[in-house]
Structures are given as structure tokens and as C-alpha cells.
Design brief:
The protein is α/β, with parallel strands linked by helices. It has two domains: 260 residues, Spore Coat Polysaccharide Biosynthesis Protein SpsA, Chain A (Alpha-Beta Complex); 78 residues, no CATH class. It contains twelve helices and 15 strands. The strands form three sheets. The chain has a five-stranded mixed β-barrel with strand order 6-9-7-8-10. Helix 3 packs across helix 6 and helix 7 runs antiparallel to helix 8. 42% of the residues are buried.
């Protein structure tokens, strides 16, 4: 893969409601230091730096977050932080990013797409896999997705069933499966299926050709907008890139990825990606855990003392404390909907 013709696109929208009360519309998950001292978005851009320079890195985010993203990423040109005037799904975001790259660098430029809020254990392995995906996309004029080798049968993920071998580890996609039951997920893992990570590589001309051929929710807006970003996002219909492009295309390949990927979807996930103390506690801030194990604690202010407890999530920010179990941490939307606005909407 030629580094000089490769671009990175980082999707950094959303508010990460499953990380309430720390994550809010004004300070969402991707702007928070959930794993280390750097916010997730900054860590993501740094991770991509050996592959693509700041001039060839685009960040797509909500219009309300664009200023914060630019402040967090002073090395990126301001115009490389692209503000989406309204949420329109990943197919629209990636189509606009591909349009921008094609306009700046031509249709043969390779586009690598990732999300801003992941944890990557093996960063070198991650970059090697992205580079391989870009090479395969170029050689086969294909849309390449990286499927994560599962570490568990998780029903919270979509799955990819690999089909016929094309080249080396690259195989055609036989089937996309959206969030199967736990029993089916277990069967799919044993059958060699992969997690659908949302990591993509393609030449922008190939991707846009597939959008024009298969995605009426997006293609007319690309033509009608005439390069006007706001007009494009006003006209598109919201749809995911998986449903709108990949499931309709015959040019999709998958390669496996095994580099410690985690989507950090809930507070409980921090027990997988943070450094743990000798009793399995994942802590941030001034935390004193006595006779306590397997807890996740994030304290922005004050001191937190645990005594004789396990499997809890404790989150402390100025004026608000959340205590729940690791098991119920996946159900925070249910909690948020039940809270009065005076508590729920604290920023």
C-alpha cells in the first residue's frame, strides 16, 4: 500500500449514552479519557499517524462537536474535521468522506475507515492489517472489511461469514448477520465467523461506484449537492454502510483481524481494556479498593472507597455518582429514560 496515496477516515459522531453520566451530548465518549490519559479520539488519530499524515486524515463528527475535535487535534488542518450538520448514518458519512478524498487526491486514493472510540491492544498489528486491507482493495478493486477473530460468542456484535478464498487471507463475504441470539453467536464462532468491526479499506472511486450502483438513499444526493456538504446531508436518507452498500455489493471481501480490538461499548468493557490491580479492579482517579475485586471505578473528582464489594461499576463526576452492577451496566438507556431531566441532562 502506498502511504502517499492512503487516507484515513475517523468516524467520531454519537454521544455514547452507555457511558452516562460521564458521556454527555457536549462531551461524548470519544472525547473522554476512558482507557488512558488521552481521549479516545486523540488516541485513534495518533494510532493512524504511521499510515497517514495529518493532511490525509479526516475526522467526521457532529456539527456541535467540531470545535472540540479541532481543539483536541491541533495537528489536523481545520478543514479535515468535517462537521455533519445532522446525523445521517454511516453510508452518508463515508460517501461524503470518499467524495472529499476523490476531489483532493483522485479516485485511486485508498481510504481506510475506523471509528474513534475503540481500544486496540496491538497497535502495530492493527496497522499491518489495515495496510494489508488497503493492498487487497487495490489489487482486486474491492471493498474490504476487517472481521475480528472473536474472543467470545457475543450477541451484541454483528457477524461476518467468510466464503470462498480470493487471495491469502482474503475471502468473499458469504453473509452478514446482525446481532444473533447468544446460541447462534456461539455456533457462528465455532464455524469460523468473524465480528463485524466496521473497519474498511477501499479505493474511493470503487466505493463511490458501488454507492451509485446500489444505494439510492445516497447516490442522488451526491449528484444534486454539487459539492455542497450541507445540501448533501439535507438530501440523503439515513442508512448504515453495511445495509446500504456492503450487503448489496458483489465486490466485498473480508480479511481476519486479531489485534486486541474492543469496541468499549459499556462501562463493563473497561475491565477488558484497562490495566487491572492485583484484585482485578479497573480504576481511574483516586480510588481505594479494600477487600474488593473485579470492579470498574472512574472517579473524576474526590476519593472513592470500596470495601468488601465486587462486580460493581462506580462513576463519579462533579455533583453526580452512578452505582450499578457490571451486569446491568449494559442497560443504561433504560435507566436514563427513567430519570428526571434534572438528573439525566446534567452536562
Amino acid at each position: 500500500m502506498s502511504v502517499s496515496t492512503t487516507w484515513s477516515v475517523v468516524l467520531a459522531g454519537g454521544i455514547g449514552s452507555r457511558f452516562w453520566p460521564l458521556s454527555t451530548p457536549g462531551r461524548p465518549k470519544q472525547l473522554l479519557p476512558l482507557i488512558e490519559q488521552r481521549p479516545l479520539l486523540a488516541a485513534t488519530v495518533d494510532r493512524l499517524a504511521p499510515l497517514t499524515s495529518p493532511e490525509r486524515t479526516l475526522v467526521l463528527t457532529n456539527a456541535s462537536l467540531a470545535a472540540a475535535a479541532r481543539e483536541l487535534l491541533p495537528g489536523l488542518p481545520d478543514e479535515n474535521v468535517i462537521a455533519e450538520p445532522q446525523p445521517a448514518g454511516t453510508a452518508a458519512a463515508l460517501s461524503w468522506a470518499a467524495h472529499v478524498i476523490e476531489d483532493r487526491a483522485g479516485s485511486d486514493a485508498v481510504m481506510l475507515s475506523v471509528h474513534a472510540d475503540w481500544s486496540i491492544g496491538d497497535e502495530s498489528g492493527f496497522r499491518d492489517t489495515l495496510a494489508l486491507a488497503g493492498d487487497i482493495a487495490t489489487r482486486h478493486a474491492a471493498l474490504v472489511t476487517v472481521g475480528i477473530v472473536p474472543s467470545r460468542p457475543d450477541p451484541g456484535f454483528g457477524y461476518i461469514r467468510p466464503g470462498a478464498t480470493v487471495e491469502g487471507p482474503a475471502r468473499r463475504v458469504a453473509e452478514f448477520v446482525e446481532k444473533p441470539s447468544r446460541e447462534r453467536a456461539a455456533r457462528m464462532v465455532t464455524e469460523g465467523c468473524l465480528w463485524n468491526s466496521g473497519i474498511f479499506a477501499w479505493r474511493v472511486g470503487d466505493f463511490l461506484a458501488e454507492v451509485r450502483a446500489h444505494t439510492p438513499e445516497i447516490a442522488p444526493a451526491l449528484i444534486a449537492a454539487g459539492g455542497d456538504r450541507d445540501e448533501f446531508f439535507r438530501q440523503v436518507k439515513s442508512i448504515s454502510v453495511d445495509v446500504g452498500v456492503l450487503e448489496r455489493s458483489q465486490r466485498v471481501l473480508v480479511i481476519p483481524g486479531d489485534f486486541g480490538w474492543d469496541d468499549v461499548g459499556t462501562w463493563a468493557a473497561l475491565a477488558r481494556v484497562r490495566d487491572l490491580d492485583q484484585h482485578g479492579n479497573a480504576v481511574y482517579g483516586r480510588v481505594h479498593a479494600v477487600e474488593s475485586r473485579d470492579n470498574v471505578v472512574h472517579a473524576e473528582t474526590g476519593d472513592v472507597v470500596l470495601f468488601g464489594v465486587s462486580d460493581l461499576v462506580v462513576v463519579v463526576r462533579d455533583g453526580l455518582t452512578l452505582v450499578t452492577s457490571l451486569e446491568r451496566a449494559t442497560d443504561l438507556k433504560e435507566l436514563i429514560d427513567a430519570l428526571p431531566p434534572s438528573v439525566r441532562d446534567q452536562s
